[in-house]
Amino acid sequence: MKKHFLLLAICTLFACEGKKEEATLSGLYPSEFTASVDGKKTALYTLKNGNGVEACITNYGGRLVSLMVPDKNGTMTDVVLGYGSIADYLASTGNFGALIGRYGNRISKGVFTLDGVTYELPQNNNGHCLHGGEHGYHTKIWDGKQIDAQTLELRYLSPDGDANFPGNLDIKVTYKLTNDNAIDISYEATTDKATIVNLTNHSYFNLSGKPDSPILREIVMLNADRYTPVDETLIPTGELAPVENTPMDLRQPVAIGVHIDEDFDQLVKGRGYDHNWVLNSNGDINVIAAKTKNLATGITMEVYTNEPGIQFYTGNFMTGEDKGKHGVTYPFRGAYCLETQHYPNSPNQEGFPSTVLRPGEKYFSRCIYKFGVE
Q1: Which residues in the chain show pLDDT less than 70?
Q2: What residues form DSSP beta bridges with 338?
Q3: Global pTM?
Q4: Scanning 128, 161, 301, 335, which has the fewest C-beta atoms within 10 Å of its C-beta?
Q5: Domain 3-106+120-201: which CATH class?
Q6: Is 339 one of the annotated active-site residues of the chain?
């Protein structure tokens, strides 16, 4: 636990001066995110556009804490799961809203070889390295700079040997809240030594406005003819399998719960959907990668990316014990993630797109979550 690293500065500014603190639209108090963790200051940043949409982000793990968008009646609705304070995030092992790296998703047995050198990484998931290990970027304090009312820049220098990954990786992530109600996330990175990079965002979405309810009735569409099947430990086998005539065929909109519990080998292994789909968009940011919709609120979310894959995860490992913002308990399958990415375990699969970054090259990844109503 990291609690002994936390020196809370909560309410110092407001309580000592007798001032009443103003909450964000989502009901968060910035003072609850003001702390010192490992000697670095944490904060809550608020982005707003002209439509009244609000995004709250903390530099602890670069996490999207809340996202208020209008439903079909114009009611502002929080569509992401998260916690109401830094203390709650520190007490959790989850990845709610976090920036993930140095390698998002799994690397088999935590081992990969690059330029003849074998690197052994932390094993934190069934003997594999998941999301960069237990102390991945989701636990780091990023340097935050609010550029304007709608833009936040986060930077982190991941040192050579960080979780045993090679190379000093200089990372910049930009969150932009656009005028068409999208969260546009851009990732840039350079290295001074050959390394592997696969950055993503791990937001948990529930478009119902009722975060204590499962997401099985929400509609999903994935623009993908193929996916990467996994073994019993959720490591891809290397095959790019067709979705045709399987429950993995999500090319036409369907409720998440329709097939999720079918006796299909891959769904049994993942306890539901927890797989990477091979996108048909071929890296074109203008071609839709995925879309979800809640019929009750009318809220829709479209996903666009230049990445070759997307991990669709349906909260199958949510325990039903997490208490999030405003004391709400998040249930089993209470949200889903759509993580734009290169494929899991790419460093150990020659047939998968490469995740190698070398000195002189620039890593660039982009993901857009665009919200609307129908």
Answers
A1: 1-19
A2: 312
A3: 0.95
A4: 161
A5: mainly beta
A6: yes
